[in-house]
TrEMBL record:
Lineage: Bacteria, Pseudomonadati, Bacteroidota, Flavobacteriia, Flavobacteriales
Domain M23ase beta-sheet core, chain residue ranges per copy: 93-193
Superkingdom of the organism of origin: Bacteria
Keyword Signal attributed: yes
Keyword Signal: yes
InterPro entries, alphabetized: Cell_wall_metabolism_enzyme, Dup_hybrid_motif, M23ase_b-sheet_dom
Keywords (A to Z) from UniProt: Signal
Name recorded for this polypeptide: M23ase beta-sheet core domain-containing protein
Species per Swiss-Prot/TrEMBL record: Christiangramia forsetii
Amino acid sequence: MQSFSDFLNELTSGFTPVIGGEYKQEDFAYIDLSENNRDLLKLEVASSEAFSIFISEFLKNRDKKAAYGGYNELRTLYNRSQLFNNTEANRNIHIGLDVWVPAFSDIVSPLDGKIHSFKDNDNFGDYGPTIILEHVIDQRKFYTLYGHLSRKSLDNLQVGAEIKAGDKIAELGDFDENGDYAPHLHFQIMENMQDKIGDYPGVVKKEDLDMFLKNCPDPSLLLKI
């Protein structure tokens, strides 16, 4: 049977938007937010405002409109949150793709699907409002997750509602509703939801990494940013 990663890679032939508007592939710049980025040492990472300025300056210096990155990235910035930084969890490896664009940007579905579940994961440092879509293509079922949305994005949603590729499904939230982050979309693909509803880990610990990477391949295979 074809691997899930190969299946995703063949679903789209080129750049596939997940942010609405006039974004093109050349508008995106890769950003490294791993522990290897020494510029982060100068930043007060606990401050969502300081991080927003950091992202804005990064884009301005490169004449780009959006930043992306973060898959399988070891990050120290999660140390600010007890949700990740505690003796039981110790989670610091990011397994989704972050796309850094302004608050209230439109979020669109890259594929046909339906609403699987949604939830406001309102812990400090969590996803905040989250939507998960279910997709069935060529008899293969999988899921996409959209985190750090606005609260109004969850209004009037119905589980099972049909979604077409390119449909607006949400708007990005600002720091006061998105888990206290600079505005960005956390986009993740899961082959198996493992019975979770409205939530799925996007940051994991090293001991569990192999399992999560197998279930959650690189979203760039689909989006081709």
